[in-house]
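Lay summary. Proteins are chains of building blocks that fold into shapes, and those shapes determine what they do. In this project we predict the shape from the chain. Here is one chain we studied, written as its sequence of building blocks.
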Amino acid sequence: MVGGPVQAPARRAAQIRKDAMTSELTPQEAARGALRAGLPLGDGRHEEVAMTANYIHSVISRLRELDFGETPPASSYRAGQGNADATV
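And here is the predicted shape, written in a compact code that computers can read:
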């Protein structure tokens, strides 16, 4: 096949998301995204919004790299159901 094998739609979508997450958002892309969401940005805000979005993305990327091992998700934690007579 020319151009390689055809990917399944879900696999292709995952690859597109991965590729998009590895590149930084430009001010022009931030402006387009905000406009699509119905939030037109004022003049001079595009670069600030892009920088903020890129920072948030970098923090989330680092969080995704953490290895929590066998730690259960927070939704399984029930406050007040621990050992009440434990010593510190």
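What the prediction tells us: The chain has a mean pLDDT of 79.
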